[in-house]
Write a structure and sequence with these properties.
This protein has about 190 residues and is an all-beta fold. The protein has 1 helix and 16 strands. Strands 2, 4, 6, 8, 9, 11, 12, 14 and 16 form a 9-stranded mixed beta sheet that branches. Strand 11 and strand 12 form a beta hairpin.
Length: about 190
């Protein structure tokens, strides 16, 4: 499915429908009132001048795991300096097409978190919810409540978290797509 055109007079925020796979040529061209945009995870291609003259953009969230192919580089040529780009994976940060103009924009990786029952957040970073999924910014800190008698483990590239001296589990969100939190039984040894 290709998004062919977006009404030029429409303003504020817009989440492209989840089923869209391509963003057509000049689809958002001239949408200067568009401020917030969400690109869904199925998008594989963004065609010529898709976001030309979108001069009001302040935030764009790009959810595909693999950076979509671009015909126009950079993808948001007229977005103002300081526009915030949120990417699903760190691969966008090194992709030469998606990192074009990187000095003009704030770029952040967002991750999903799944947690075993019993693990709750006592503090969590600001999250954004798109299409029913919560995303957290990389580099932000999450503090966990872990049931008594259990230890928490977080898995991303084989990393684990340990409690601090007061038993608090806290970690910084990595540049990964999915972080899995587990509550692992931690038997107490009696002497």
């Amino acid at each position: 499915k290709t998004l062919v055109s977006f009404p030029g007079g429409k303003e504020d925020s817009y989440a492209i429908p989840a089923g869209v796979e391509q963003i057509g040529e000049s689809a958002f061209s001239g949408c200067g009132g568009l401020t917030l945009l969400v690109i869904p995870e199925r998008v594989t291609n963004i065609f010529v001048d898709a976001f030309d003259a979108c001069s009001g953009l302040t935030s764009v969230t790009v959810l595909p795991e693999v950076p979509p192919g671009l015909i126009t580089v950079p993808p948001f040529p007229d977005a103002p300096d300081g526009c915030k780009l949120y990417y699903r994976t760190a691969s966008y940060l090194t992709n030469p097409f998606w990192s074009e103009d990187s000095d003009r924009f704030s770029r952040t990786v967002i991750s999903t978190v799944t947690a075993d029952p019993g693990i709750t957040f006592s503090s969590e970073p600001a999250k954004r919810t798109y299409y029913g999924v919560d995303y957290y910014e990389a580099g932000s800190t999450i503090t966990l409540n872990v049931p008594a008698g259990y230890a928490a483990e977080a898995f991303w590239n084989g990393n684990h978290i340990s409690p601090d001296s007061s038993g608090v589990y806290s970690f910084s969100m990595p540049d990964e797509d999915v972080v899995k939190l587990s509550a692992v039984y931690n038997p107490i040894t009696y002497t």
